[in-house]
Design a protein that fits this description.
Pathway: Amino-acid biosynthesis; L-cysteine biosynthesis; L-cysteine from L-serine: step 2/2
Number of helices: 8
Structural class: alpha/beta
Protein name: Cysteine synthase
Strand content: 15-25%
Enzyme class: transferase
Number of strands: 10
EC number: 2.5.1.47
Distance between the termini: 56 Å
Catalytic activity: O-acetyl-L-serine + hydrogen sulfide = L-cysteine + acetate
Order of helices and strands: EEHEHEHEHEHEHEEHHE
Length: 298
């Protein structure tokens, strides 16, 4: 009798229809619940993909030290994957990451290094490159690693096509490393070129975990602008309010980037009719409770 391992249960996450948040004009809003992955986010998919593919090429082997810059979810997923496969994981992140995220990474056995909030992800990426150049570990580099979007081309995209019976008309996703939107876009466009791919970035001045507006010199090299039909700017308050709406009106406890994805999906819904709009719920909201974002407004 075959029993699955933890790696076997990454992916195949539920796709659920929103019931109380109205999309109007006969539109259907569908949420892909990536928080149902073992380490709690969409990043479980590329984390395992990057390790498995690097192993297959002989670039890494169990016992090696791996170094990665992360703002949170990728770090948790990589820490889990390293624990499964027997790697030492060093994660570099801005100190502003939530306590739950830091504690989850540490729980899986990862070593954490913080940079200042002002240095941000750019500073974390710079430090990772410096440490790798000094020979302190091997890189995965989610921002330039084709095995990141490959995970979504192989799994997330096909799941969405099958779960909607090919009826999906719009795919809405936050853009951070851009791995999710790149891989899903490539797959869905192969099945139906008319499917609209909508990416989300923060408004100037907004700080939304998981969504980035990169300076040109830090733009992930895996990103191909031609694979995104439209980019929407999401405001800080807008993302946080829609995160709370997901929890209070739909019972979906998720993070701020997922609130941003809902906000983007509703904007699209206001413009179209008879559409099937899918958005990614990137993670679970329990890793944001210490931020106070879910607290009743005073």
């Amino acid at each position: 009798m075959h029993f699955p391992t933890l790696e076997d249960v990454v992916g195949n996450t539920p796709l659920v229809r929103l019931k109380r948040i109205a999309a109007g004009r006969n539109n259907t809003l569908l949420a892909k619940l990536e928080g149902n992955n073992p380490a709690g986010s969409v990043k479980d998919r590329p984390a395992l993909s990057m390790l498995a593919e690097a192993e297959a090429r002989g670039e890494i082997r169990p016992g090696d030290t791996l170094i990665e810059a992360t703002s949170g979810n990728t770090g948790i997923a990589l820490a889990m994957a390293a624990a499964i496969k027997g790697y030492r994981m060093v994660l570099i992140m801005p100190e502003s990451a939530s306590n739950e995220r830091k504690q989850a990474m540490a729980a899986f056995g990862a070593t954490l290094i913080s940079v200042t909030k002002e240095q941000g992800m750019e500073g974390a990426r710079d430090l990772a490159e410096t440490m790798i150049a000094r020979g302190e570990g091997k890189p995965l580099n989610q921002f330039a690693n084709p095995d990141n979007p490959l995970a979504h081309f192989r799994t997330t995209g096909p799941e969405l096509w099958e779960q909607t019976g090919g009826a999906v008309t719009h795919f809405v996703s936050s853009m951070g490393t851009t791995g999710t939107i790149m891989g899903v876009s490539k797959y869905l466009k192969q099945r139906n070129e008319a499917i609209q791919i909508v990416g989300l970035q923060p408004e100037d001045g907004a700080s939304i975990a998981g969504i980035r507006r990169w300076p040109a010199e830090y733009l992930p090299s895996i990103f191909d602008a031609s694979r995104v039909d439209r980019v929407l700017d999401i405001g800080q308050h807008e993302a946080e309010e829609h995160m709370r709406r997901l929890a209070r009106e739909e019972g979906i406890l998720a993070g701020v980037s997922s609130g941003g994805a809902l906000a983007g999906a509703l904007r699209i819904a206001a413009e179209v009719e008879n559409a099937v709009i899918v958005f990614i719920v990137c993670d679970r909201g329990d890793r944001y409770l210490s931020t106070g974002l879910f607290a009743p407004e005073l």
